[in-house]
């Protein structure tokens, strides 16, 4: 089995497991987000819980859709045998990213950690959207390898939530920082970690140019 196929299957496993966990946590275990909202103690504006929860649900659903559609489009089987689906699915991925960004933009002012975290999320939203648009532009110009690189950078950001909570847990439970400080550092730390992870994948798994036209 090739390195790229092993990497893809590993990514697919993480994606599926994480989606199952997120859906269970948000819609079964704690649908009112009681534990998460419990950390929002110093908000400077009133939080309309019912509206926030509805926006959060949309955010979660389309974040999962972005994970699935993005993962599907990295499949060489789909790329070679179902090119039309690959193209349409790519636009669905873009739509999912836009919806995730818009809902995140609504929730950003209520982020744990206040303005510092809010600015981090807004920065992340801009970076993610720019990378996704760059991938679309590259394939419109028939630059397949550049398209794949920008899609790799974009797709890395579907793991934002996972990375933020991993870093938060490390800083809060491992080092002993306050949850709010840990979360704020994790927001910015996740941007750096995900960008580095994407470049590592590009330089290892995708080091050979693609020979498949889209």
Automatic annotation (TrEMBL):
Keyword field contains Membrane: yes
Annotated keywords: Membrane, Transmembrane, Transmembrane helix
Keyword Zinc assigned: no
Name of the molecule in the record: DUF2306 domain-containing protein
InterPro entries: DUF2306_membrane
Transmembrane residue ranges: 7-27, 58-79, 91-108, 120-137, 158-179, 185-206
């Amino acid at each position: 089995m090739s390195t790229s196929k092993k990497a893809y299957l590993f990514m697919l496993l993480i994606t599926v497991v994480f989606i199952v966990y997120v859906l269970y946590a948000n819609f079964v275990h704690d649908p009112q987000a009681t534990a998460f909202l419990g950390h929002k103690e110093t908000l400077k504006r009133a939080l309309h819980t019912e509206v926030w929860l509805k926006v959060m649900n949309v955010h979660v659903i389309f974040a999962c859709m972005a994970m699935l559609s993005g993962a599907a489009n990295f499949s060489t089987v789909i790329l070679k045998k179902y090119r039309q689906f690959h193209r349409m699915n790519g636009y669905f991925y873009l739509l999912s990213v836009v919806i995730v960004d818009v809902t995140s933009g609504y929730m950003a002012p209520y982020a744990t950690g206040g303005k510092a975290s809010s600015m981090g999320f807004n920065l992340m939203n801009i970076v993610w959207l720019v990378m996704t648009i760059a991938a679309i532009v590259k394939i419109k110009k028939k630059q397949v390898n550049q398209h794949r690189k920008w899609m790799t950078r974009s797709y890395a950001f579907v793991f934002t939530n996972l990375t933020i909570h991993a870093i938060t847990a490390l800083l809060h439970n491992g080092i002993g920082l306050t949850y709010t400080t840990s979360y704020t550092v994790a927001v910015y730390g996740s941007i750096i970690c995900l960008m580095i992870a994407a470049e590592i994948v590009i330089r290892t798994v995708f080091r050979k140019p693609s020979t498949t036209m889209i």
